[in-house]
């Protein structure tokens, strides 16, 4: 896919001009709530489209700056690719700016631009002092080397230059993974009159398409993506990096809440105990003791829990990266590498943040042995890193494995000999466990299809692939189908795929009426009435007549002469034998009429059917028997 999708965030202290700057860049006022208008502060996340061309689409998240809305701020920042740190020229760096900087660092944001706003309110010399102040505060942060942009949202000074800088920066940046399974942490839930339940969020990874079956985690409720919108415009698909609104069927507004996650795969882990690597803020105000109550912000979820240490009983200052565990009061959805923030609920302050080492944490003993095991988990063996990369992406080339695991080619090739890895094409590999899972998924899909379409020989291969290609590569799916055929699990007939144990059949409820239809057709020999008359007489409704005709013809029970007449299969075969016995290598219509004793009403459709089936070939007024 050539087009790339990104979401950027506006972060900074309250009243430093984030919303005004967003409006200047996008012409969209993201403060939409009545309370936001009245108080002139952002309470909820605001969203707007910034830029789009054939190669790039960029969205903006306007993050609330007030300390009371820190949850919304974390939820908004967690899914973005670049941050514009907004600092007002007339105030400089403020306490909330520093906290935002800490959070951005803990969440792994690596790309940023500093926008000094309200430059028309101060003298030019004062701006240089503000720059120096900012540089001092940004030392040893992710923004240490970020470029400065001077802007004024009211006069539009510097706005076009800032927009160009954002676009140029993202053109050089890699987008999120669209090959992996779809994941969207929900940050807004609402209803639309006449449409039902809608959720909104940033697509963290993967792709979702209209009509796709999805699952809400951690509850496990199954839903369908009835409609999609990207920036209030209908869309057939939404990709990683995009802001998307999804109209869901099969669920009510009351069954959903912010913090839950919409996914396309059962591979995602639901857990309440996670092993983590955490760093704390430099100026921590209060002692963090063993099992201190905390709020964990991960994705868009905010969950209470406790922090558990295995090498200490308290934490007061920056001690580098600490390996520990978070035991949460509620289930969350996460995987290795996900970023999180930990805050103290009372008194409120940001303690620190980090990344998930293992989402499947267990209870461990206090002591050095546990710390050594956590260190091993953190580093990850080459096989574990390859396993994690393939578990996420489902299939990768060697070049992609090198990029995702930071291993050299020699190490990857050596470890690919392990039984858990399978070569699915010339250069592409997948996990045995993933292959087994997809194989079972295909089996389930075919079983469902057979139960609802008993008379069809199977599911169109193209249709089967289309239902799965949003989550898995075509090469992986082709391998699994071919492998299933070689194992005798699946059968391929022309363009159809079926389970090997399946045979097309008339549903039991229609067996007697079908038998009546066939017997009547058989009784009338070659002098048949319209086929629709037989169908009506047998009591077969229009809703299944087309399917039944196709089935009976596929099974050789009948042969359609044209769209009106059909013969019983054995009668058709006998007519062919009779014609062949009474004619030579070539014959005319008159000779055929004499041989099978048919009027032109049936004779011409019969002869044309012979042509279409390849028995004969028409040349001018004659037909030639073809060798079969």
UniProtKB/TrEMBL annotation:
Q: Tr-type G domain location, by residue?
A: 3-174
Q: Sorted alphabetically, which CDD domains does this protein's record hold?
A: SelB, SelB_II, selB_III
Entry's InterPro entries? Beta-barrel_SelB, EF-Tu_GTPase, EFTu-like_2, Elong_fac_SelB-wing-hlx_typ-2, P-loop_NTPase, SelB_WHD4, Small_GTP-bd, T_Tr_GTP-bd_dom
Keywords from the UniProt entry: Cytoplasm, Elongation factor, GTP-binding, Nucleotide-binding, Protein biosynthesis
Pfam families attached to this UniProt entry: Beta-barrel_SelB, GTP_EFTU, GTP_EFTU_D2, WHD_2nd_SelB, WHD_3rd_SelB
| One GO CC term, this protein | cytoplasm
Spell out the subcellular localization from the entry. Cytoplasm
Q: Name one GO molecular function term.
A: RNA binding
Tell me one GO biological process term.
selenocysteine incorporation
What top-level branch of life does the organism fall under?
Bacteria
- Database matches in PROSITE patterns: G_TR_2
Q: Which NCBIfam families match?
A: selB, small_GTP
Q: What does this protein do?
A: Translation factor necessary for the incorporation of selenocysteine into proteins. It probably replaces EF-Tu for the insertion of selenocysteine directed by the UGA codon. SelB binds GTP and GDP.
Query: What is the name listed in the Swiss-Prot or TrEMBL entry for this protein?
Result: Selenocysteine-specific elongation factor
Species in which this protein is naturally found? Mesobacillus subterraneus
